[in-house]
Design brief:
Shape: rod-shaped
Helix content: over 70%
Radius of gyration: 37 Å
Number of helices: 4
Distance between the termini: 38 Å
Length: 170
């Protein structure tokens, strides 16, 4: 065992000028093989086991990171789609309300008495209240759909991660 610690390091300046780094690499490979042959088999098995475990852990971490990145991409994409849908809904609602107000203005322009103006206003307010209530419900429903759609990838990723942890712990 003390032979390993007393081994001379291979220096790049010891490379042959003709072969360059190949001589250093070959010398390093020879030194590693020489050191491997001096190590007891149990140590070699332990080192190989540790390397295999490190590779396995690295692969799991890389796969987990890839899944997380994919989840974020889908979440952002769905969030963007949801924002577009909400913006379109807001524009549609504004257009409907503007059209209703314009229709009221045309009706008021044709009114022949104050009593007719009051009746038109009361009817418009009742209709607008019902319309605004329905529009608020539509926006609430759409917001719920967008939220669920946007959160679904993150929720699935968390559930998958928990299941994977449970499998490795059992």
């Amino acid at each position: 065992m003390s032979e390993i610690y007393n081994a001379k390091p291979i220096r790049p300046d010891s490379a042959d000028s003709v072969g360059g780094e190949d001589v250093v690499r070959n010398g390093a490979n020879e030194r590693i093989e020489e050191t491997d042959s001096m190590a007891p088999p149990s140590m070699r098995v332990l080192a190989e086991t540790m390397i295999a475990q490190y590779r396995d852990a690295y692969e799991r971490a890389r796969e987990s990171m890839d899944e997380a990145v994919s989840m974020f991409e889908v979440t952002i994409e769905r969030g963007g789609e949801g924002a577009v849908a909400l913006n379109r809904k807001a524009i549609d609602i504004a257009q409907d309300n503007l059209n209703s107000s314009f229709d009221l203005a045309k009706q008021l322009a044709g009114a022949d008495s104050l009593n007719t103006v009051m009746e038109l206003n009361v009817a418009f307010m009742r209709k607008q209240f019902e319309t605004l209530t329905a529009q608020a419900q539509e926006v609430r429903d759409l917001t719920t759909q967008v939220t669920n759609s946007t959160a679904a990838p993150a929720k699935a990723h968390v559930n998958h991660s928990i299941q994977a942890l449970n499998k490795t712990n059992h």
